[in-house]
Amino acid sequence: MNPYWYGPDMRQFPVITQPSQPYIPPFPPFFPGQGQGQGGYTPPPPPGGGGGQQGAPQTPPPSFTPPRPPSQASLYAVDPGAIRRCLYRYTYVWLRNGRGFWFYPIYVGRNSVAGYRWRPNQYRWSYVGLDLNSIEYFECSF
After folding, report:
1. 98: alpha, beta or left? (left if phi > 0; alpha if psi -120 to 50)
2. Is the model's pTM score more than 0.70?
3. Which of helix, strand or coil describes residue 81?
């Protein structure tokens, strides 16, 4: 048995078991392909407190939808370095499933991005995580 459990950011946590109790990790593991987020990814929890630029935007996104670029049918995932330049900016995301929405990214990982998705029918931002493989194209506002 591996003496360590790996968290979502690949930090190691020691596995501590008691003979009469099964081990339950301190929080559920997050792996692409599992969970309830977009593209089968469960995002890390939203940041708590701390100030800076870490919360949801206080205003709605722009009122227009950028034109969708011609499909480029790529088998490659979006590069984390490319979407990192969109941190804390209104970003329009087109998914491989054809859906598009305004997104406000606050975290970029090796295989995922997390932030706030605009829900126009509810007129609010909701926290979501996206697998970079599920993103076909994105465009951020500057």
Report:
1. left
2. no
3. helix
